[in-house]
Amino acid sequence: MALPNYPLDQVADLNRLQHQLDDEAWLYVKRCRPAAILVIPDEGDPIAAFDLGQDEIEVSATRRLDQMKKRIFQAIGLPLFRFRAESPDSITTDEWYALLTDEVLPKLDTGFRLRKRSVTYGFVPV
Question: Which top-rank group of organisms is this from (predicted)?
Answer without folding.
Answer: Bacteria
